[in-house]
């Protein structure tokens, strides 16, 4: 795997080859990843994985026509052929009035903040196995756990670089460590499965394997013998395991591409009160060790901390250059690149600001409600905001948990859900989108 500096040079080299082949403008990305993981099941080695990948992709423009192409062959001859093929493809493509590189005056040139996303602690395969075994052993020791789907421990690293024909070149690297445990509780037709996992750039930021295994076991046992609930309107509380999905739907509706296509339930609502007054949803791409920290975006623009929602109001759309041109706005540094092709929109280290009450206080006045720990299916309409998903979790009766429930559906409309949303104070910072426990009153629950 190349270093970030070498990767940047390789991307620059491909851009120069594209210019020599006849491109008016071009950008190139280099991405490489390496990982290894160990999986065990019932105390025995189940799988050993080792993977490495290296890819370079070119996007070029001939007038207002563009083409994208990629290759895992990085030899000089292959790169020349790549550039020539892309030129031929672009000349046959239709014109796009919004295509092009980011505005040159907005390019980022550093110096960049220290993101601390690389860890020198690299466990050996034997150590990875011991970590996985410790996680599974802790889960299987929980009373009621009867089987295992396995436990895994992995580590890896990656390098990303971007170069453009109008003056940007940058690269960065990161490492990753993860632990996952999945077990089964109960017997026969009453079996239930659950899991726990964590990921971090630094191994030291992970909980112990025993903690993760214990949590997986306790979660599986807590699902045993689920009941059914009556249908009707009631408060629904979303555990932090799933509450981030509600923010994810909001971010998707804020995408400039959705706004430009007029396919967002937030259309024409910029600046309106969407969430309760005082609500803040922030983004910090420069958070040290953040899972999605990055010094620049996929078009070479600066990333920066900002509030995406302030006092319950959306502060702006998430724009790459093409969507910004279509909407007559400036790009916001939210472009992302994955493999080849045009940029997409992505956010970095988002959090929903914590509320002032504990989760116990948040549910204390609920006479009859649902605490959701798992969501099933994808029943969300991004155009209308209509929301309907299968769910399971715990019943809430008189402010207390009253046993597991399953085979139910929670439904509503996202705009109404956001307007009636309250947050607990249990915000944690180990996910890409960090959200505390959320309560939404007035949802429709379909059960018996």
Automatic annotation (TrEMBL):
GO CC, alphabetical: cytosol
GO molecular function terms attached to this record: metallopeptidase activity
Pfam families from the UniProt entry: PmbA_TldD_1st, PmbA_TldD_2nd, PmbA_TldD_3rd
Domain Metalloprotease TldD/E central: 121-224
Gene Ontology terms describing biological process: proteolysis
Region named Disordered: 278-297
Domain Metalloprotease TldD/E N-terminal: 26-90
Family as reported in the entry's similarity comment: Belongs to the peptidase U62 family.
UniProt protein name: TldD/PmbA family protein
Organism: Novosphingobium aureum
